[in-house]
């Protein structure tokens, strides 16, 4: 990826937070790399290099700045929305695919050879897939070191390192500190935390309209799976190595996240999925500027800046929700989904007792705050992960509570996921996934496009045939037939998914 030196240097000189995650600043005179917004004195031009990824900076021996924490910056909005191979690869790496399946597994999912994928990532990101995964492992290890009292050996393997030596060497190279020194410097606790409760901050680019996110999630919450309570979103997670539960509380400049995991190897994918759920890597300034250029949307954008597209932590879950939600009210869909979730095959997250204070990104989280996240006296609500495709296939007809045609559509979806003919992960080829969805009986354009927007992260989907979207368009004085609305919405590209959310809110 080409980085314009003058533009990047101006962003660094102005300490512009909007560029955090877009690129990284390497300072050759000090041997560190920083966020563009680092509060340190602006380095001299001759001592600066710019990098498209933290891994690229680490690749020439630079260490992470201890002051600005560049590895905790929001992810690049470029890789968050791009549908090409590099964008898909970055989303899959963030979800831990390299740690679980290696580079061959990543390359296979993308349809390329290991060597070709390495060339493409190196050209765009300045580092290959192994280096990018290594940077993520280092960040995961730092979080565990600073927020838990787990033994270093357990942290090493939970973060994805193959050996203790690799763990020690990597952290010394990235942070210029031994693992034990990181814990001492940040006040890490010494008591082990059992089932794995971790508190951390998820950074985002402001503005963030938190209430709009919570409103959207609250009206679609399912008993036993997720809920919004006292400004916090709680939900159960089904993760690669087990189950988990998360509490997400939007705050000024970050979202406070409290995670309980049955297997700490799931930390990186859990964080990636939470970021994706809340659309935290979006660039709201760019999105709002495009939408506000339309006089019909300008007042809504001015009144509610920072609207995000709530996405998915589980592609199969979102597909089931979309199919059940076809041509019915949200309330009716919730009743049917609740019946599905009564299956006894869906695991709950074991309750973890929390009796210590943790530190995340330099800010203490008190026992009271942690208990507020997890529920009465620090205990979680035992929220469940959603049904897996395998779970759904063993349900009897009586467990569905819907017409036979829709039941068979769900079973057809589940069979396609189980046999591997349909991939619903965030790193999927969007166009191919939509084609495969449309080939399944009972799935039409609305469902496929809804999944493209919420499960696959397509930023440019307008659901112009949706009744609520049309009502919202009429309320804002916009054309409200599918054809005329589609034509008008050309000016909203490439952010029509965000316009869809705004039209729903206006309905």
TrEMBL record:
Cofactor: Zn(2+)
SMART domains, A to Z: AlkA_N, ENDO3c, HTH_ARAC
Keyword Zinc in record: yes
Species, as recorded: Micromonospora parathelypteridis
UniProt keyword list: Activator, DNA damage, DNA repair, DNA-binding, Glycosidase, Hydrolase, Metal-binding, Methyltransferase, Transcription, Transcription regulation, Transferase, Zinc
Protein name: DNA-3-methyladenine glycosylase II
Any single Pfam family the record assigns to this protein: AlkA_N
InterPro entries registered for this protein in UniProt: Ada-like_dom_sf, Ada_DNA_repair_Zn-bd, AlkA_N, AlkA_N_sf, Alkylbase_DNA_Glycosylase/TA, DNA_glycosylase, HhH-GPD_domain, HhH_base_excis_C
Chain ranges of the HTH araC/xylS-type domain: 87-185
Reaction catalysis annotation: Hydrolysis of alkylated DNA, releasing 3-methyladenine, 3-methylguanine, 7-methylguanine and 7-methyladenine
EC number(s) given by UniProt: 3.2.2.21
A GO cellular component entry from the record: protein-DNA complex
PROSITE patterns in UniProt: HTH_ARAC_FAMILY_2 (PS01124)
EC class: hydrolase
Superkingdom as given in the UniProt entry: Bacteria
GO biological process assignments: base-excision repair, AP site formation; DNA alkylation repair; methylation
Gene Ontology molecular function: any one: DNA-binding transcription factor activity
Alphabetized CDD domains for the sequence: ENDO3c (cd00056)
């Amino acid at each position: 990826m080409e980085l314009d030196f003058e533009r990047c240097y101006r962003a660094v000189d102005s300490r512009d937070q909007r560029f955090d995650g877009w690129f990284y600043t390497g300072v050759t005179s000090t041997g560190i790399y920083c966020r563009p917004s680092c509060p340190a004195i602006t380095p001299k031009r001759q001592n600066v290099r710019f990098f498209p990824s933290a891994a690229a900076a680490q690749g020439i021996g630079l260490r992470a700045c201890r002051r600005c924490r560049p590895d905790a910056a929001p992810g690049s909005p470029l890789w968050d929305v791009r549908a090409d191979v590099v964008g898909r690869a970055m989303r899959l790496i963030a979800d831990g695919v390299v740690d679980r399946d290696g580079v061959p597994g990543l390359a296979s999912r993308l349809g390329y050879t290991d060597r070709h994928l390495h060339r493409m990532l190196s050209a765009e990101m300045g580092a290959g897939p192994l280096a990018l995964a290594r940077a993520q492992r280092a960040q995961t290890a730092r979080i565990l070191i600073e927020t838990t009292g787990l033994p270093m050996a357990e942290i090493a393997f939970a973060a994805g390192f193959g050996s203790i030596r690799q763990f020690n060497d990597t952290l010394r190279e990235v942070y210029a500190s031994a693992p034990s020194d990181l814990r001492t410097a940040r006040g890490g606790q010494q008591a082990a935390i059992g089932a794995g409760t971790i508190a951390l901050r998820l950074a985002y680019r402001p503005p963030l309209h938190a209430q709009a996110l919570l409103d959207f999630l609250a009206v679609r919450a399912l008993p036993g799976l997720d809920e919004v309570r006292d400004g916090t979103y709680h939900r159960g997670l089904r993760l690669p190595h087990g189950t988990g539960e998360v509490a997400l509380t939007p705050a000024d400049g970050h979202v406070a996240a409290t995670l309980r995991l049955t297997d700490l190897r799931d930390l990186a994918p859990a964080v990636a999925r939470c970021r994706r759920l809340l659309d935290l890597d979006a660039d709201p300034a760019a999105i709002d500027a495009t939408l506000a250029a339309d006089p019909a949307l300008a007042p809504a954008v001015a009144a509610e800046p920072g609207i995000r597209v709530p996405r998915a932590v589980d592609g199969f879950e979102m597909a089931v929700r979309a199919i059940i939600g076809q041509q019915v009210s949200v309330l009716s869909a919730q009743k049917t989904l609740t019946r599905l979730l009564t299956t006894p095959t869906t695991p709950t997250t074991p309750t973890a007792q929390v009796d210590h204070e943790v530190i995340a990104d330099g800010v203490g989280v008190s026992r009271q705050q942690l208990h507020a996240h997890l529920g009465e006296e620090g205990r979680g609500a035992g929220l469940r992960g959603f049904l897996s495709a395998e779970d759904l296939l063993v349900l009897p007809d009586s467990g569905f509570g819907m017409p036979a045609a829709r039941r068979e559509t769900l079973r057809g979806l589940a069979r396609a996921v189980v046999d591997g003919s349909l991939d619903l992960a965030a790193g999927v080829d969007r166009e191919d996934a939509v084609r495969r969805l449309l080939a399944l009986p009972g799935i039409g354009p609305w469902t496929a496009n809804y999944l493209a927007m919420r499960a696959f992260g397509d930023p440019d989907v307008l659901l112009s045939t949706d009744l609520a979207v049309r009502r919202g368009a009429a309320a804002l004085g916009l054309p409200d037939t599918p054809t005329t609305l589609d034509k008008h919405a050309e000016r909203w590209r490439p952010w029509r998914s965000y316009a869809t959310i705004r039209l729903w809110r206006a309905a």
